[in-house]
Amino acid sequence: MSAPSSTIRWCRGRGELSRAAADHVEALLARKPGAVIALPTGQTPLGLYAELVARTAAKRLSPAQARFFNLDDYLGLSVDDPLSYARFLREHFLMPTGVPEDHIRLLRGDAVGIEAECRDYEAAIAAAGGLDLAILGLGTNGHIGFNEPGSNWSARTHVVFLSPETRATHMTQTQGKFAIPEYGITVGISTIVEAREILLLVAGGAKARPLAAFRRGIPDSKWPVTALLTHRNLTVLAEAELQAAAAEGVMGLTNP
Ligand code: GLP
Q: Other CB atoms closer than 10 Å to residue 205's CB: what's the count?
């Protein structure tokens, strides 16, 4: 197993974290313009998307040949729903950078046959040649995508019951303006760890516990993020202010 601390780069604030993440994507696109990339939603990657939009406008990079998937979404929402992750990604990254429609495949949370949608999604990733890069955020309970604590690590794209903690966090983030669905749809941990490269972005005080669980270095299904410990090409970009808090939390970690 790789030593977790050696994979973590501590960044001074979200600005540095976003620029470092954008450097990563820029380097991949320079190496492989047609790269296949899975994208996260949430507050953490907003700075990365702003940076990529600015660099695209400045012609430093072009995501037009790359292909994009998302990691997760709520179940039952159409891709146009204001709460949907599909809409978020279109708004913050895919549209402003002009990624062509036929290079975008996002989960359809309102698909009528959801099992078939999950299979079709996996088939689309495979047909694209597999993920070159999975960019991940981190849930306060250690989830990656919507793979909640206790998830099966051999799962592929599937429907999940969202934990009360996840729903409460999202309720707060959306200031109670939306009813947060009970279920989500997510690529599985298997899908994620098969990506040739993984970039995990960790920002915000509430991430100290899951980051501590990761730094402990023990694979533990109660902390889905620890499924990444054995990945051969993992980079973690984390806010430096989490360093002390995450170290303190290493002892006595429990997760519901
Ligand atoms: C949601 C998403 C995750 C994301 C997480 C972190 O739960 N399902 O994919 O990583 O939020 O969000 P934030 O960056 O807002 O903390």
A: 11
Q: Angle of helix 13-31 relative to helix 46-57, nearest 10 degrees?
A: 50
Q: For residue 94, how far is the Cα from the chain centroid?
A: 16
- Give residue-wise pLDDT tens across range 132-174: 999 999 999 999 999 999 999 999 999 999 999 999 988 888 8
Q: Rounded distance, CA 108 to CA 118, Å? A: 9
pLDDT at 28 over 60: yes
User: Dihedral, CA atoms, 205, 208, 209, 211, nearest 10 degrees?
Assistant: 140
- Number of Cβ within a 10 Å radius of residue 93: 21
What separation in angstroms does the CA of 183 have from each of 1, 58, 85, 146, 173? Answer: 33, 39, 13, 9, 17
Instruction: Determine if ligand 1 sits within 6 Å of the CB of residue 71.
Output: yes
The catalytic residues are 72, 141, 143, 148
